[in-house]
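Interim report to the steering committee. The following record documents the input for Dephospho-CoA kinase (209 residues).
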Amino acid sequence: MRARTLSTKPWILGLTGGIGSGKSAVAQHFIDLGVHLVDADHAARWVVEPGKPALAKIVEHFGTQVLQADGQLDRTALRKRIFADVAERRWLEVLLHPLIGQEIAQYLARAESPYAILVSPLLVESGQHQLTQRILVVDAPEHLQIERTMARDQSSSEQVQAILQAQASREERLRHAHDVLLNDQDLHGLQAEVERLHAFYLTLRGGQA
């Protein structure tokens, strides 16, 4: 019985890319095509909701300055703290990564599509790639990543550069990639590439050609 269950289990595609690469647009089109998708950023929010043990530990460590008036985590305040201090970022990662991994695994287990997707900007750095059988990297030239992120988040060039440096390098991500989607074109072209990849992925067993 167990063997049959395993043989029908969807394989997992890891989807990643640097900030401003276009991961969200790619992920949304896969969803539109009927693929079960879990976003690690969403899982990261779930584990620090008010009442969750992780939020209490964060407040104990960083102080109430990282809370909003309504008791929610103030992500902007926390981000400033951790990007200014590598040791603080590491502390937070050690606390959150295992909890986020548990949330992700639970959601992936509910997939009913032939393959499921784990979207994560930190797929390589966090070790989440170990949950996947194949990796798709959304790639974009760095100048486009910076332009897009500044426009989207109203961030300064320096803030975007700091985030880029905290993420895996472009070379490191590409080294792990089975597939690369270069996003230096318009949305229509991007969606056509997603549809081409989706048709290919439906032919795979266990993520392998």
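The radius of gyration is 18 Å. The committee is asked to note this result when reviewing the revised timeline.
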